[in-house]
Amino acid sequence: QVQLVESGGGLVQPGGSLRLSCAASGSITSFAAMGWYRQAPGDQRNMVATITRRGTTTYADSVKGRFTISRDNAKNTVDLQMTSLKPEDTAVYYCQAVRGVTSWGQGIQVTVSS
Fold first, then answer.
1. Largest interatomic CA distance in the chain
2. Is 88 helix (H, G, I), strand (E, B) or coil?
């Protein structure tokens, strides 16, 4: 099973930007899709953005126009560029990879607060 490690989280002020990165332990070209999900306290885990092997992207309505997902097959990474961050974006963000089975990273905290 692939290992996924997230990085780039932290504390940012409203309106600021962060870039999350997910590094996979092996080649990501075999994954049907990869994505980012988030879970706020007391809430379920929700999809934020996904990207397929062919590069097709999907975004939650709440982040459209503000977040961008991208993948680098040479580096085996999937990044999430987040701009115009809002307090409601505060959550633990998880990287996901799908290849028959679904693999998850350990999660990383993003806090948007002044």
1. 41
2. helix
Q: How far apart are CA 59 and CA 82, in angstroms?
A: 12
- So what's the pLDDT on residue 63? 98
Give the separation between CA 11 and CA 98, rounded to whole angstroms: 29
- The pLDDT value recorded for residue 30 is 86
CA atoms within 13 A on the CB side of 104: 11
What SS3 state is found at 3? coil
β-sheet bridge partners, residue 18: 82
Tokens 């994954």 sit on residue: 31
6 neighbors 96 (Cβ within 8 angstroms): no
List all residues 6 or more positions away from 16 whose beta carbon is below 8 Å from its beta carbon.
85, 112
Rounded CA-CA distance 60/72 in Å is 22
Distance of CA 43 to CAs 11, 40, 48, 80, Å? 20, 5, 14, 21
| Cα separation, 52 vs 33, whole angstroms | 4
Give residue 100's pLDDT: 87
